[in-house]
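Margin note from the TA: students keep mixing up input and output lines. Inputs are the sequences; the output is the structure of the whole complex. Example:
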Amino acid sequence: MANNINIGVIGYGYWGPNLVRNFAEIPGAKVTSISDFKPELLAKAQSRYPSVKVTTDSSSLLKDPTIDAIAIATPVSTHFDLALAALKAGKHVLVEKPMTTTSEQAMRLIEEAEKRNLVLMVDHTFVYTGAVRKMHDLIATKQLGDIYYYDSVRVNLGLFQHDVNVIWDLAVHDLSIMNYVLPSQPYAVSATGISHVAGEPENIAYLSLFFENNLIAHIHVNWLAPVKVRRTLIGGSQRMIVYDDLEPSEKVKIYDKGITLNGNSESVYQMLIGYRTGDMWSPKLDMTEALRAEGLHFIDCITKGDRPITDGEAGLRIVRILEAATQSMKQQGRLIELNLAEVAA
Amino acid sequence: MANNINIGVIGYGYWGPNLVRNFAEIPGAKVTSISDFKPELLAKAQSRYPSVKVTTDSSSLLKDPTIDAIAIATPVSTHFDLALAALKAGKHVLVEKPMTTTSEQAMRLIEEAEKRNLVLMVDHTFVYTGAVRKMHDLIATKQLGDIYYYDSVRVNLGLFQHDVNVIWDLAVHDLSIMNYVLPSQPYAVSATGISHVAGEPENIAYLSLFFENNLIAHIHVNWLAPVKVRRTLIGGSQRMIVYDDLEPSEKVKIYDKGITLNGNSESVYQMLIGYRTGDMWSPKLDMTEALRAEGLHFIDCITKGDRPITDGEAGLRIVRILEAATQSMKQQGRLIELNLAEVAA
Amino acid sequence: MANNINIGVIGYGYWGPNLVRNFAEIPGAKVTSISDFKPELLAKAQSRYPSVKVTTDSSSLLKDPTIDAIAIATPVSTHFDLALAALKAGKHVLVEKPMTTTSEQAMRLIEEAEKRNLVLMVDHTFVYTGAVRKMHDLIATKQLGDIYYYDSVRVNLGLFQHDVNVIWDLAVHDLSIMNYVLPSQPYAVSATGISHVAGEPENIAYLSLFFENNLIAHIHVNWLAPVKVRRTLIGGSQRMIVYDDLEPSEKVKIYDKGITLNGNSESVYQMLIGYRTGDMWSPKLDMTEALRAEGLHFIDCITKGDRPITDGEAGLRIVRILEAATQSMKQQGRLIELNLAEVAA
Amino acid sequence: MANNINIGVIGYGYWGPNLVRNFAEIPGAKVTSISDFKPELLAKAQSRYPSVKVTTDSSSLLKDPTIDAIAIATPVSTHFDLALAALKAGKHVLVEKPMTTTSEQAMRLIEEAEKRNLVLMVDHTFVYTGAVRKMHDLIATKQLGDIYYYDSVRVNLGLFQHDVNVIWDLAVHDLSIMNYVLPSQPYAVSATGISHVAGEPENIAYLSLFFENNLIAHIHVNWLAPVKVRRTLIGGSQRMIVYDDLEPSEKVKIYDKGITLNGNSESVYQMLIGYRTGDMWSPKLDMTEALRAEGLHFIDCITKGDRPITDGEAGLRIVRILEAATQSMKQQGRLIELNLAEVAA
């Protein structure tokens, strides 16, 4: 493998330009080709990056032997075919979230990448922010004690999408963060939600996720809210977190609050529950752009043969939850088992 | 009936003193007796209101022919017996929320009050705030257009209760507000939640309520949150409301935001959804203490023979939802039909 | 001196009832008499505290040999005469802020108290809050480094007063806090402000206070603001504080932010100024009601013969600044020397 | 004059790229040349705008007969020489704020532009935001009644500048907004402030500005604050405004609050002051980027021969206040007359 990882980017719409801009500034990476089926977007790409090859034919990137890795930033319905073709062409793959439209597809991609010993990474961008990494570290080092709940709200007057519902558009962020910071996986989901525009997918949804050990998670997403909210509460037996992504600097606040139990083995009725409130603390966060940290990690995994933090299995788990939540939502909250251990096995 | 309504108050713990203080200042009302089984609370009542009779025997209030009405501010498990006895003794009744522990009990009280032509009112206090009345009026006069969703969060590091779960303690407020401001009743509920203290009732819960006509409601309640939140979003086709009860003055904000549809009967794929954002407006609210407004309304209903806004049926509807939500929560979100029309018939 | 300190309270209008309520619950203190010239206020006091003597004649409290201390909660114009008479009658004195209307009066009271070895304390209530004591401790233990500035805003749509301007009404709070938490005293003041109602005192004012050692303080007070603000910034070379008294719990936030200097003795042009940002921390505060802590301190000082934190000198310093600021304001910001060392000598 | 206005931009450091980017997208304008003395900045400009001429020699832009207008985005100490040379070369001029370092220089530029009938515009960017234009319109149409005060805070942990103090760096924004929205000009200023780094200019400052008719303005600027604040209060006899530039959408809030006077001609002591609180209203704002609106206005003024809103006189008024405030600050608040009518005559 050459010193430089040559990258081809498929899709130059909303997210593609961010991928290109970040890879352009990462040492050891080089964007050599960009494809999109809209010529006007390619013209824009060409004027900004005069040395990059542009094409409307994405298959030409897969055939190019100088390209080591493919980044896919196209609509979700095309992820599977493009990623599979790229893997079959021997390219490492970074694919936008959600990874695929079904868990079967996700499993097929994982299998293909394993067989060929290629890096398969899903662009769960938030996982690479300083805020989420800090929360992961706090939980991993047991500073919150046992985790009691994970509650997230992500609402605003957002763009309605015609091809996916609000869960696939917004909850995917919360699920990827949750999957990274929590120490265990949910075993079932119950979801509710409806559409307010006839013929369109659901624009408001609520997901409850069940875990072993008294942990519950809940996600509220809404494309039709008057105000923007991006707030997650994480409750633990020792400490609790408020993560507000709209705060300009103090995004993560850690509260030394909780309950204390003065139990009595003879009778739960004699259980005394006390309240504990202490200091609040907001740690300084690494403000590196998430996509830069993610790009560096992708290059690093390719170079060293490491497994990415947001690997195919992480992508699969999220897709499986999205799938099950959509199914539950159609049945007004019916509990759907996730079987994440099985699907990921 | 005498010019003055003489009131006996049963229960002088947390809420009773507020009832007494407000009735003491309402023209046409007079608190003549207070009962509580704790003598030290009666001593406190006596020192503040030297002319009031105090007793540990609540039945003596029911036997007192000079008492016109009984206000009950005791634990919920005692509401039914006390209210039924008071009605049977010919007294008008104001009972704390939740009205009873079962919907059967609530129906029995309604029946008894109707038979005896007595006022039966439930103390859904928030319904009498300026903020909630303003929201009711805005919705009733169609200023929000069609109602799309009602989403409420009521969380904080609150007192754990041993006898009722967090739904009966906190969601009762949201349900009574929702019941008052929305134009229709839910037909089913799906709820999730768990307990984090062995042997104690659930301390975190999520309720989804289903209505006809594409309306959904959701309530999040939590006794174990690091921060206090009291926020409701109400989305409509024309306007949307943010109601934040922690704001000192601008509790209700009305956003002239929404979506516009440029539909096409031939194909939903040609549906264009546009976004509309306009002014925000926060109306001046009546700042009268809710309990004073409620007390005046109670006296008014007794005097004029009117039906209270928060009558027995309103109380019954809330109890029925609490009951069903608790049942659903035990079964991890299973949909429970409410049959509110039947129970209230 | 008896075991109990018997207290007479003069003035039962706005603040008097708070004094009485707190002293009533302090071990070792007993309110035995209350005077006010309005009989209806005395009736209210009597009904709440049946065992207290009430009178419209304040001089009868001074003559009462069983009374050890007098608390004065009357308009500022009456403070001097009442406090002087109380001291001459051999009573310890707690007087509302501002202590007097002139610094000469304040000096006279200090002299009288010293001569008679009596406790003279000024009710600078905020000094006894957990928030202000925490800030005092942080500064006293050098955790902020050198103090650079003290900036306070106290504005709202407040009651216009006819007898004193907004400086005497609102800035007195900021000055008493500043006087307690800062390590040194200002040497001069420049103030601006105007009245918006003909014939009434100034309702908006800005004070700049000059200290040695590059420390500056500024206070903005306004009776005619659309929103309520109670916010103080304290900048230090090592850390900075934001104190927001309207925050329900996190009133004091400490920012590990500042500048770092990489100086060069040869040339200021080569001075490099770097920026430092670190964690933010909000310590748990003692939530004891300030007036209770203050009352305990008053009783303690009487019992042990100690000097109060907010002694006559502290009161005098504040009055001197108020006096000078009012003078400066009349002359559109003219610098007025304070000579605090002299006046307090 | 050609259909297109050809623009040369001098200075491609912090602000220049924003000017170029906006002019590049304005119909009727074309950036043809860019100069900067740093070749690496020119290289960046060239790669983004391949067709633009770049040079380290700014005088070559002045000599270029195809250039109609010069935009100057260099340090303030160079503004006068560059602008004068550009005017003498017959070019229209858009110059960064502050316009010049002295009011004499500003007057000289105005004179030169008038003589040659050229547009001289100062880049007071905030004047072209939707928020500031809305406030201007509300005040101009008397919706606030008489204006009582203008109070602005602009603080954060900002870049220390070595050549100008914090007034010239930050207060210039507030003064240009104030100058645009208020109906009259101040006649005198009193300012205080200090430097916390030896040998460096003042990093914290407070300005009080005096107007006729009981109007006062105050500006607080600080490079060394732990939090960022951008908040202006404008008080009027009928309504009041809170303008918070950090709010993502509701930047301008209008409060229907104030006082009501029930005067009595015989005695001010009988003046009764009542309080009035009504609705709050936050109007939708034009979200066009200010620099785009400003660029369009510049082109329009050139094309039609109109006088810009932020003309040389506006620039001169701000420079005169900055000058006087710096002088006052050196003398600890001494009142300095502004004579704006004279300087602008």
